[in-house]
Amino acid sequence: MEYKKIDHQDMEFIRNLINDPERILFGENINEEYSHDELSDTESYPDVVVKVISTEEVSSIMKYAYENNIPVTPRGSGTGLVGASVAMEHGIMIDTSLMNHVLELDEDNLTITVEPGVLLMELAAYVQDRDLFYPPDPGEKSATIGGNISTNAGGMRAVKYGVTRDYVRGLEVVLPNGTVVEFGGKVVKNSTGYAMKDLMVGSEGTLGIITKAILKLLPLPKKAISLLIPFPSLEQAIRTVPLIIKSKSIPTAIEFMQREVIMDAEKYLGKKFPDNSSDAYLLLKFDGNSTEEIERAYDSVAKICMEQGALDIFISDTTEREESIWKARGAFLEAIKGSTTYMDEVDVVVPRSSVNEMVEYIHSLHEKVNIRIKSFGHAGDGNLHAYVLKDDLSDEEWEKLMNEAMDLIYAKARELNGQVSGEHGIGYAKKSYLLQSMDPATVEIMRGIKAAFDPKNILNPHKVCQM
User: Per the database record, which ranges form the FAD-binding PCMH-type domain (predicted)?
Assistant: First the structure.
């Protein structure tokens, strides 16, 4: 499709609308970070970046862009991993990071209304200070809520509490033609027509731009305890997970990790992990309203682990210990990135009963493909993160071996009735794998939905299922 190239007239419109030169970045003033996201090597500069502060500004820009056939890319913190916030057709980038205000805390309805640029860590701290709890817990705490909603981010607490979608009650959205609409609201139940709000969650900025979100909250659990459980081998650790899931005790999180990733995290953080002597670990978290309640929950799980060959049970029951363990877990991605010259990631999800088979398969690929692969993940919900490392490979070798490893991983996930992405999305980088794995009829329905929202295809083109 032919898009209009930004010219003097377009810049005049933007300057007159924004009326603050510091919120408009053009040409050489566009920081290099705006050309890519946190991981993917997808790189393309926008012609102009506009730091918006209101729904009205977003609406006016979209109306103008729609009438003039100018491509627009929405962006939050840029912490994505699949190129979803990269301006593939240049044009206008709408940066929502200054729309970062809490608009309302409704304790009667247990909801909070926020702008899209509020950071996850800011939201979590804000509600926790008021004895409330926003359960979604993606690893990147500096991501924006708008970005979390756009990718339906998951995180470590999904085992017990679910993912971002489960906590979105309502959205204010600017459509590609500039129209402002509201989907959902504060109601708990809603069978009023199509689930438009749910369609927006996970749409990666291709259907509309989120300018306001009403989020569900819970009462804050009063106590949390974690168990760090070393195993002699990865296989023994992973094969224990289905038994934990089948038990009546539901942990808040079930994570698996290998010694080599822990060592990377220790080096990255400059701090020792509580234990690094075993080949593999399960990290379990339990929360509740009393120590006694939590102890009853984890006691049976601890017994299952010991029966399956666990070497020990380290109980983390102080804030200091909790922070040391989970801070290390939160640093895994950056630590792995720092251990190599470049890497690409796989974010597959499989049925929970197939986690052990998928993890063991990924672990075996190192020898089969002759490339380093490190993995960790949310064993309790089947979402596994595997990172293929370039190290000192030439660009040609890297492309060949990385693609071979990824093809095998995604093929195995399909064989196990899994999906391409559990929480990072498709963006630009993983589009080919989505098209390979999905029924063509389903892809056509997705493209039809995109066309209904955005007939001119100006909003975040070339992402998810768009060619």
Answer: 42-220
Instruction: Give me the average pLDDT of each 10-residue run along the chain (467 residues).
Output: 94 96 95 91 94 98 98 97 96 98 98 98 97 94 97 94 98 98 95 96 98 98 93 93 89 92 90 88 93 90 96 86 82 90 93 91 90 90 93 95 95 96 95 94 97 98 93
Distance, CA of 154 to CA of 295 (rounded, Å): 26
Answer whether 228's CB lies under 8 Å from 201's CB: no
DSSP assignment letter at 419? B
Cβ burial of 259 (10 Å; 0-12, 13-18, 19+) is: middle
Contact status, residue 76 vs residue 122, Cβ threshold 8 Å: no
**Type of residue numbered 201:** V
Least Cα distance to 63 among 201, 174, 199, 183 occurs for 174
Q: Is the torsion defined by CA of 378, 384, 385, 388 positive or negative?
A: positive
- The first and second tokens of residue 45, run together, are 């500069």
- Contact, 204 vs 148, CB < 8 A? no
* Residues 396, 379 contacting (CB under 8 angstroms): no
> Residues 97, 103, 109, CA angle at the centre, nearest 5°?
130
In order, the DSSP letters of 311-339 are ---EEE-SHHHHHHHHHHHHTHHHHHHHT
Give me the residues paired with residue 216 across strands: 111
C-alpha angle 145/150/155, rounded to 5°? 65
- Which residues, at least 6 apart from 216, have a Cβ–Cβ distance to it below 8 Å? 110, 111, 166, 167, 168, 169
Domains of the chain: 8-97 (3.30.43.10), 102-219 (3.30.465.10), 223-333 (3.30.70.2190), 340-425 (3.30.70.2740)
Buried-exposed string 118-149: b where 16+ CB fall within 10 A, e elsewhere: bbbebbbebbeeeebbbbbbbbbbebbbbbbb
Q: Which residues pair with 69 in a beta bridge?
A: none
| Range list of β-strands (E), 261-415 | 280-288, 314-316, 343-346, 373-378, 383-389
Which has the closest alpha carbon to 221: 135, 116, 300?
Answer: 135
Quote the distance between the C-alpha of residue 428 and its chain's center: 15
User: By three-state DSSP, how is residue 351 classified?
Assistant: coil
